[in-house]
Amino acid sequence: MRILITGITGQVGYELCRYEWPEDVEIVAASRQELDLTDAGSIETYIAEGRFDAVINPAAYTAVDRAETDPVTAWKVNALAPAVMAEATRKVGIPLLCVSTDYVFDGTKAEAYDEGDPIGPVGVYGASKAAGELAVRTGNPRHAILRTSWVFSAHGANFVKTMLRLAADRPLLRVVDDQNGCPTAASDIAATLARMALRLVADPKAPTGTYHFSNAGPVTWCGFAREIFRQQAALGYAVPKVEAITTADYPTPAKRPANSVLGVEKIGRDYAIRPRPWQEALSEVLSELRLEQRKSPEEPR
Ligand SMILES: NC(=O)C1=CN([C@@H]2O[C@H](COP(=O)(O)OP(=O)(O)OC[C@H]3O[C@@H](n4cnc5c(N)ncnc54)[C@H](OP(=O)(O)O)[C@@H]3O)[C@@H](O)[C@H]2O)C=CC1
Ligand SMILES: Cc1cn([C@H]2C[C@H](O)[C@@H](COP(=O)(O)OP(=O)(O)O[C@H]3O[C@@H](C)C(=O)[C@@H](O)[C@H]3O)O2)c(=O)[nH]c1=O
Ligand SMILES: [Mg+2]
């Protein structure tokens, strides 16, 4: 079985590459050099000639603020590329798995968002991802769109690593306390995508459609930051104070949803996947980061 994976230098793509796949799975890991997602024509040829059994596409334009002033690139990577992939995978009759985001929602709902809730992106990144979803949904019936949120890992850029970096030279961090979501480990997303892909390949009748997956437990960015430093402090590390602020106190180019907690019951029903608490996953990532730090202490993070 041959599976194409994109975005391999990113958080989720990297974890997909190091996932312990069954022996009969051959992973084709395509870097940007091998497959530039802004080049629609090359995507089509790559899939048409690749003899793949499935395509997993975690690659994306993920710079939420930068997308506001670079919408064309964001739309090429997040909307057009998935559209071309959907068409190309449908032509060769294979499933396509794409990763999407909690930022497709407007954040005004008081409870967790379910898969059927109306979307209403408030920024360019969310809008481009929503367009990608629609293209996949309409382009290849054998698809899975996995919406996730607040991704972190030891590898790549994310909120956890930003907090640790800022903590190195600041005694006080100010973090927004009025945006709610669910942090999610890239490794758990990778394991979920792998399980879904294997089932979709093995069983033409396997459930398709849109699924939410995040680690369990809603929190604010401020609460997330405090838990990062609580875990670090418990191991004797010096940590900064974290001050709770409002979104208005922390102006950013892109607007972000005030609530983007995802309800994950559907993936439990259809795929028997039940996420663990994010605190548990965070503890693994923090120890991986400390291990890396010990290996190369001079390397800045
Ligand atoms: N990060 C998050 O907090 C969240 C992410 N998501 C979604 O999850 C998925 C995975 O995100 P994550 O792993 O964090 O993303 P990253 O930002 O860590 O990685 C993005 C990947 O996409 C690749 N990429 C970007 N542009 C191109 C291009 N033109 N051609 C080829 N490859 C390209 C990057 O390659 P290169 O290194 O060369 O730039 C990189 O490998 C994405 O679909 C994202 O929208 C959903 C919710 C939250
Ligand atoms: C660095 C920093 C950020 N913040 C705020 C800004 C923002 O509201 C929030 C998170 O900031 P970030 O830039 O890390 O997160 P952001 O880029 O918005 O993260 C999003 O990325 C995309 C790709 C997704 O799909 C989302 O699920 C989500 O993970 O924290 C502070 O309040 N204080 C700080 O010191
Ligand atoms: Mg960001």
From TrEMBL:
Tagged with keyword Oxidoreductase: yes
Q: Which cofactor does it need?
A: Mg(2+)
Q: Which reaction does it catalyse?
A: dTDP-beta-L-rhamnose + NADP(+) = dTDP-4-dehydro-beta-L-rhamnose + NADPH + H(+)
Q: Does the keyword NADP apply?
A: yes
Which InterPro entries does the record associate with it? dTDP_dehydrorham_reduct, NAD(P)-bd_dom_sf, RmlD-like-bd
Task: Give the originating organism.
Answer: Ectorhizobium quercum
According to the entry, every stretch annotated as the RmlD-like substrate binding domain falls at 1-290
What is this protein's name? Answer: dTDP-4-dehydrorhamnose reductase
Indicate the enzyme's highest-level EC class: oxidoreductase
Q: What is its EC number?
A: 1.1.1.133
